[in-house]
Amino acid sequence: ILGNLIDNAFDATLSVIRDESNVASERRNIEVSVSDYGNEVILEVSDHGCGLPENIEPQTLFKKGISTKSRQNRGVGLHLVNQLATRYHGHVEML
């Protein structure tokens, strides 16, 4: 789960860096946070990447085959994250 989330954050951040290649390089971070609330653990991954296109609803990215990336064979990572979280009685949200 964590690997797929970080991979997506990295791709989003990298696309911003590529778009700003003619601008002075600034530091881009991916932040990972884990909070334990006894019977619940919250894992958060955040980035300062490109964000979602306006025509994409965040929850649709968890459907198999849906992707914002132009590369082939995409659209399974976030689907797997959602499937695994659900299997272990969790859920995934994109904010």
TrEMBL record:
UniProt keyword terms in alphabetical order: Kinase, Transferase
Residues covered by the Histidine kinase domain: 1-95
Top-level enzyme category: transferase
GO terms for MF: protein histidine kinase activity
Catalysed reactions, as listed in the record: ATP + protein L-histidine = ADP + protein N-phospho-L-histidine
InterPro entries assigned: HATPase_C_sf (IPR036890), HATPase_dom (IPR003594), His_kinase_dom (IPR005467), Sig_transdc_His_kin-like_C (IPR004358)
A Pfam family hit: HATPase_c
Superkingdom, taxonomy of origin: Bacteria
E.C. numbers: 2.7.13.3
Classification via PANTHER family: SENSOR HISTIDINE KINASE (PTHR43065)
Name recorded for this polypeptide: histidine kinase
Organism of this sequence: Vibrio parahaemolyticus
Organism lineage: Bacteria, Pseudomonadati, Pseudomonadota, Gammaproteobacteria, Vibrionales
